[in-house]
Specification:
This protein is an all-alpha fold. The chain has one domain: Amino acid/polyamine transporter I, CATH 1.20.1740.10. It contains 18 helices and 2 strands. A hairpin with a 2-residue loop joins strand 1 and strand 2. Helix 6 packs antiparallel against helix 16.
Length: 507
C-alpha cells in the first residue's frame, strides 16, 4: 500500500509509491496489452534511427565536432549504454506506463517524480518537434526535386534566415529570405496525433512497416554512398582534413571541447530505448520483453549511427551540414546521375522521421496519462476513449504542443533543450537503480545492471558532465523551466496528489 500521508512538507515531498502499488496499477490499467518483444524493438529502432541519422548529425558536425562527430557518437553511445542498462533493470522490475517518472516516484519520491515529468516533456515533446523540423526539411527538398515549391516563408521558424547548403538563401530583393512558420512540420504533428488516437495496436502495425522500409533505405545509403566514397576516396579524403578541426577559441567550437559538446547534442538521438520503457502497461510479457526491446534496439542503432556519420562527413564538407536535412545534402552530392537514388533516400528519410515523431508523441501521451492517474495533472488527461481505449484528450494536447514548437522555433534551440532534459532524466534513472537496490534488494528482477554499483554511479556522473557542455543561455532557460515546474508542484501537484490523499485511483 502507499505510504501514510503526512503533514510535514519535506516528508510529503519524499512520499513514495510502494513497489506493490506500482505493480498493482499495472494490473488495473485500462490500456490493452498488445505489444510483443519485436514490437518493442521496432518501437525503439523507429525512434533511434531517425532522430540521430537524419536530423542532428549535421548540426553537431557543422557547428562543433567536424568529421570527429564520429567520436561524439561513441561518447554519447557509451553514456547511453549506461543509462540503457539502468532502464532495462527498472523496466523489468516495474513494468508500468510512465517510464522514468514512475521509477522516480517509487524510489526517490513524489517531488522527484514531478521534476522527472517536466524533464520528460523536454525529452519527448520537444524531441518530437525537433524531428518534425527535420521531416519538413526533407519534404521541402524532395518536392523541390520534382519542381514543386512551398513558399520559403512557410518552411522555417519565425524570424530566421532560410539556409540551404550551409549558406543563407537570398531573395529577389537581394536580402536573406526570412521564414515565418514551418507549415509542413505543423501539419505532420497534428496528423500523427490523430493516428495515435485511433489506437496503439494500429499505430504499432504502421510503425513496424515504416521501420522495415527505413532500415532498408539506411542500409542502402551506407552501401551505395559508402561504395562511392571508397571509389573516390583520394578526392574525398580532404573532407576529413583535419579530422578534428582546430578550436576557434570559443568553448564547444571544434577541438576536443567541440567533440564533447556534439556528444551532448546527438545524445537525444538515443532516446528510442527509453520510449520502449513507456510501454510497460501495453507489453504482453514486460519482464522478459522490456530488456530485450531496450538493449536490442540500442545495439542495432549504435552501429548504424557510426557507419552513417562516417559516410556523410566523407561525402561532403562538414560545414555544409548545418541544415535540417543533412542526409539529403550528402546524397545530392552524388550528382545528377544519382538523382533517382537521392529521391529514394529522401523518401526513406521522410518515412523514417514519421515513425520517430509517432514514437515520441506516443511516449509523451503515456507519461501524461500516468501523471493524471496519480492526480499530479488534471484528471481529464487520464480519460480513455470508449472505443479506441487511448488517452485521446492528452494526445490532442501533445499534438498541438509539438506542432506549435516545431512551427515557430529553430532546430538547434529545440535540440539543445531536448538534450539537457534527456541527460538530466537519464542521470536520475541511474540514481533510481541504486536507490531501489538499496531499499528493495529482495524484489525479483528480470535483468540486473552488471558491475553494480560502479556502472550506475558512472552513468550519473557522465550524464551531468555532458549537461554542462551545453551553451550557457540554454542552461539558464533550463533553470527557469525547472523553477517553474517546482512552483507548479506546490500550487497544483501536491494539493491534488492521490498519494497525498491516501487514495489509490482505479479506473
Amino acid at each position: 500500500m502507499a505510504n501514510t500521508p503526512t503533514t510535514g512538507l519535506l516528508s510529503r515531498m519524499l512520499m513514495r509509491k510502494s513497489v506493490e502499488q506500482v505493480q498493482r496499477e499495472s494490473e488495473t490499467s485500462a490500456l490493452k496489452r498488445t505489444l510483443g518483444k519485436w514490437n518493442l524493438v521496432f518501437l525503439g529502432v523507429g525512434c533511434i534511427i531517425g532522430a540521430g541519422i537524419f536530423v542532428r548529425t549535421g548540426n553537431a558536425a557543422a557547428l562543433h565536432a567536424g568529421p570527429a562527430v564520429l567520436l561524439s557518437f561513441l561518447v554519447a553511445g557509451v553514456v547511453c549504454a549506461l543509462a540503457g542498462l539502468c532502464y532495462a533493470e527498472l523496466s523489468s522490475t516495474l513494468p508500468v506506463s510512465g517510464s522514468a517518472y514512475t521509477y522516480s516516484y517509487t524510489t526517490v519520491g513524489e517531488f522527484a517524480a514531478w521534476i522527472m515529468g517536466g524533464l520528460l516533456l523536454l525529452e519527448y515533446g520537444l524531441a518530437a518537434s525537433v524531428v518534425a523540423v527535420g521531416w519538413s526539411g526533407y519534404v521541402v527538398s524532395l518536392l523541390g526535386d520534382y519542381g514543386l515549391v512551398i513558399p520559403p516563408e512557410l518552411t522555417g521558424p519565425f524570424g530566421h534566415a532560410l539556409m540551404r547548403d550551409g549558406v543563407a538563401v537570398i531573395g529577389p530583393d537581394g536580402n536573406a529570405v526570412t521564414t515565418l512558420f514551418n507549415l509542413p512540420a505543423f501539419l505532420i504533428c497534428l496528423a500523427l496525433a490523430g493516428l495515435l488516437i485511433i489506437g496503439v495496436s494500429e499505430s504499432a502495425k504502421v510503425n513496424n512497416v515504416i521501420v522495415a522500409i527505413k532500415a532498408s533505405v539506411i542500409i542502402a545509403f551506407i552501401i551505395i554512398v559508402g561504395w562511392y566514397v571508397i571509389q573516390h576516396f583520394d578526392a574525398l579524403k580532404a573532407n576529413w582534413d583535419p579530422f578534428i578541426p582546430e578550436p576557434t577559441g570559443k568553448d564547444g567550437e571544434y577541438g576536443w571541447s567541440g567533440i564533447f559538446r556534439a556528444a551532448s547534442i546527438v545524445f537525444f538521438a538515443y532516446i528510442g530505448f527509453e520510449a520502449v520503457s513507456t510501454a510497460g502497461q501495453e507489453a504482453k510479457n514486460p519482464k522478459r520483453d522490456m530488456p530485450f526491446g531496450i538493449i536490442g534496439s540500442l545495439m542495432i542503432c549504435t552501429v548504424l549511427y557510426i557507419l552513417v556519420s562516417i559516410v556523410m562527413t566523407l561525402m561532403v564538407n562538414y560545414k555544409m551540414l548545418n541544415v535540417p536535412d543533412p542526409v539529403a545534402v550528402a546524397v545530392d552530392a552524388l550528382g545528377p546521375a544519382w538523382g533517382w537514388f537521392a529521391k529514394t533516400i529522401k523518401i526513406g528519410a521522410i518515412i523514417g522521421l514519421t515513425s520517430v515523431i509517432l514514437v515520441l508523441m506516443y511516449g509523451q501521451t503515456r507519461i501524461f496519462y500516468t501523471m493524471a492517474r496519480d492526480g499530479l495533472l488534471p484528471k481529464v488527461f487520464s480519460k480513455v476513449h470508449s472505443k479506441f481505449k487511448t488517452p485521446w484528450i492528452n494526445t490532442i494536447l501533445v499534438g498541438f504542443l509539438t506542432a506549435a514548437s516545431a512551427a515557430f522555433f529553430d532546430i538547434n534551440t529545440l535540440g539543445d533543450m531536448t538534450s539537457v532534459g534527456t541527460l538530466a532524466a537519464f542521470g536520475i534513472v541511474c540514481l533510481s537503480v541504486i536507490w531501489l537496490r538499496t531499499t528493495h534488494p529482495e524484489i525479483p528482477r528480470g535483468f540486473k545492471v552488471p558491475l553494480y554499483p560502479a556502472l550506475p554511479a558512472f552513468g550519473i556522473v557522465a550524464c551531468f558532465a555532458l549537461i554542462f557542455t551545453v551553451e550557457t543561455r540554454v542552461l539558464e532557460f533550463f533553470g527557469w523551466y525547472v523553477l517553474a515546474a517546482i512552483i507548479l508542484y506546490f500550487v497544483y501537484g501536491m494539493r491534488n496528489s492521490q498519494l497525498q490523499k491516501g487514495l489509490q485511483q482505479h479506473e
